[in-house]
Amino acid sequence: MDIPGYRIEKEIGKGGMATVYLATQESLNRSVVLKVLDKVQRSESEDMSRRFLDEGRIVASLHHPNIVTIFDIGLADEELYISMEYVEGGDLKQRMQSTVMPETALDIVSKIGSALASAHSHNVIHRDVKPANILFRKDMTPLLTDFGIAKQTDHDQDLTSTGIFLGSPNYVSPEQADGKQVDGRTDIYSLGCIFFEMLTGYKPYHSDSVIDIVIQHKTSPVPTLPDSLSGYQPLLDKMMAKKLEQRYPSATALLKDIERLQRTNAAAEINVFADDSNVTAEKKPLKKKKTMILLTVLLIISACFFFGLQFVEISIKRSDTQVVQASTKSVLQPASALAGNNLAEQKRLESQSSNMEETIEGKATPQQPVSDEILKALEWLGKQSLDEYKLTYPPKDNAYYYYSRLLELQPDNQNAYQGILDIAERYAILAERSMLNNETDKTRTYIDIGLQIDPANQALLSLQKLTSNK
């Protein structure tokens, strides 16, 4: 790849829509991040190109110390790219692997809240505020990034008008999960979820099922903080209120309450220090020594935990292709077997089989009618997983799983059937990419999986013929 004015150093990330590279801008000799739209995606969908360019234009129009800086947007040798600042401090998702102090958490919420206030004042709603989209500079300044699904309320078609609602399940607002029109308050809700996670170390809602988590965001009360953090509960309640009229009306209103809380905390800290001054001179060195020992122990534990995580992540990445292949061979049904009356009969037999097994195990329960909430959540999660290229993996959190479950519950659902066909199309895209990179084994794996899903997919059949001739 050759983009004039830039020297590509290495690939640092890859998503369903674009590949991200670390590069050097030669004119200024500075490190930048190049986000390059995949050619296949561009040729397949004009909407992808539009969304990609919109992201660059939206962020470039926002000048704020807590929003990532865009340097350039361009087209070079048919490569559509965005050049942005290189941020070396990692993201909030990584940082939350260790404890975040309440004062630090409140400061991060304040700065990201300020970034959202600026975006909202320009009629831009982020719609995907989550820890992975909050980066840190070397000086630990938090930055809001990835406006890939942002919406400008004064123009552009709202993506939700097509029935597609976007975002991340663990941080999705109730109105966003319903596919309704959203405003800046949806970002405030997501930021509230992040605030809770920073304070407690775990997400607001828990379940083995992603569907249940989405439904909890819509129906469950705001989670309660531990007693030691109860002073932050009123702020959290208003950020995560289920009813829009009870939530903060704007990020600016949120910032005012944060400032008041920070002043209150500062005053309380001054009183604590005043009381502490009565400690005898003999006890102070002992207290300092104990603190240093505790900090050293915590540092050692954190280091061990970090390196352990790195080892696990590397192991997972190495085995990813083999796991996907193994996990799909035994569970995928061809799309042709899922069509029309065959589908209804197949699902009926599967249901009978499942009920028989439950009866044998003594777990059978009367069947309950399926709510529209579950059907809507399954369809959303299927589309979400499809967009994120979680096609058949990880187990029970992938597009094939959600669309198959939807077909079990509603055998005539054409959106689910089309979704399964779209999975095969995505595998054709992945196979074409890997073929261009001369990754033969990976190409064949993608083709095999895709053809298990849709044996009649012409793109996959053509690719299979090409690879068999090599």
Structure description:
The chain is α+β, with helices and mostly antiparallel strands and 470 residues long. The protein folds into three domains: 6-85, 2-Layer Sandwich (Phosphorylase Kinase, domain 1), CATH 3.30.200.20; 92-276, Orthogonal Bundle (Transferase(Phosphotransferase), domain 1); 331-343 and 370-468, no CATH class. 53% of the residues lie in helices and 10% in strands. A hairpin with a 5-residue loop joins strand 7 (134-136) and strand 8. Mean pLDDT is 79; it is low at 152-166, 311-330, 340-353 and 355-366.
Outline the secondary-structure elements:
Elements lengths: L5 E9 L3 E8 L4 E8 L1 H6 L1 H15 L9 E7 L2 E7 L6 H4 L6 H20 L2 E2 L8 E3 L5 E3 L6 E2 L21 H4 L7 H16 L9 H10 L13 H7 L11 H26 L6 H47 L10 H21 L11 H16 L11 H11 L4 H23 L3 H14 L4 H11 L2
Antiparallel strand pairs: 1-2, 2-3, 3-5, 4-5, 6-9, 7-8
Helix pairs in contact: 4-6, 4-9, 7-12, 10-15, 12-13, 12-14, 13-14, 14-15, 15-16
Compute the CA-based radius of gyration: 25 Å
One letter per element, helices H and strands E, the order comes to: EEEHHEEHHEEEEHHHHHHHHHHHH
Instruction: Identify the CATH architecture of the largest domain.
Output: Orthogonal Bundle
CATH fold name of the largest domain: Transferase(Phosphotransferase), domain 1
Give the mean pLDDT: 79
CATH homologous superfamily name of the largest domain? Transferase(Phosphotransferase) domain 1
Q: What fraction of residues sit in β-strands?
A: 5-15%
Task: Give the low-confidence spans.
Answer: 152-166, 311-330, 340-353, 355-366
Number of helical elements = 16
- Broad CATH class of the largest domain: Mainly Alpha
Determine the N-to-C terminus distance: 25 Å
Tell me how many strands there are: 9
Q: How are the strands of the largest sheet arranged?
A: 1-2-3-5-4
Biggest sheet layout: 5 strands, antiparallel
The share of residues in helices is 40-55%
Shape: globular
Structural class: alpha+beta
